[in-house]
Amino acid sequence: MKDICIEFSDILPGYFSQNNSKANDCLDELVRKINNSTAEAIILFTKQSNFAAIIGAAVKYSLNRTWIASDTWSTSEKLSSLSGIEKAGEVFGFISKRNEVPGFKDYVISSMFNATTNAILNNYMTQFCPTKSEENRESNFPLKKTAKKILKCLDPMDLTNYIDQDASYHTYLAVEVIVEGLRSLLKCDHRQCKRSTNFTALEVQ
């Protein structure tokens, strides 16, 4: 592609999405930079909380640009439901291929019902359960129906419905890439590896 240049590049600080004067000053400076630039497209590789602040400002100040969304926030419901989003311009997003991790649902179910111990799953299953004091308080002072629903423990059979397919599949692919890199580096087959484990991180490709 020809006649394309990068006018500016910014690295957002960790406090960017916080609601304080320091973060607000940083956002104002970014808005001024975008408004004064001739850039027609803005690429945002950032987390959802940062994008929400930037796009909110883009709508407020009508920063009509073409926004390129990374897969972190391209499918965000906040974006599609944002009032006045047309004032910010057009938004194009990219997402990686969606799929299920092979055998993951079966593993989750077997980990819950085959008498195995899984601290992570147990914690997730009980994080919305009421404590003894809450149970006693509920018996003395009945809660509203919505509050009772929040305190109700998650049904084990429904646990697989709460799997974040995007996050789990991306993690699966990342691990697969590292495994294949190590297998190639160590010259491994299904039984053994020919090379020693003395190598640098840069050698894993």
What would you say this structure looks like, in words?
The protein is mainly α. It has 3 domains: 21-93; 104-163, no CATH class; 164-205, no CATH class. The protein contains 8 helices and 3 strands, in the order αβαβαβααααα. It has a 3-stranded parallel sheet, with no helix packed on it. Helix 3 links the parallel strand 2 and strand 3 (89-93). The longest helix is centred in the last third of the chain and has 21 residues, at 165-185. The two termini are 28 Å apart. Residues 134-151 have low confidence and may be disordered.
Descriptive key words:
mainly alpha; 43% helix; 205 residues; three-stranded parallel sheet; extended; 8 helices; 3 domains; single chain
% residues in beta strands: 5-15%
Percent helix range? 40-55%
**Tally of individual helices:** 8
Largest beta-sheet details? 3 strands, parallel
Mean pLDDT: 79
- By DSSP, the count of extended strands is 3
Distance between termini? 28 Å
Adjacency order of strands in the biggest sheet: 1-2-3
Membrane topology: Multi-pass membrane protein
Protein name: Receptor ligand binding region domain-containing protein
Organism: Champsocephalus esox (pike icefish)
Subcellular location: Cell membrane
Would you kindly provide a brief summary of this structure?
By secondary structure, the chain is mainly alpha-helical.
Spell out the blueprint of helices and strands.
Layout: H1 21-36, E1 41-44, H2 48-60, E2 65-69, H3 77-80, E3 89-93, H4 104-113, H5 119-126, H6 132-140, H7 145-151, H8 165-185
Parallel strand pairs: 1-2, 2-3
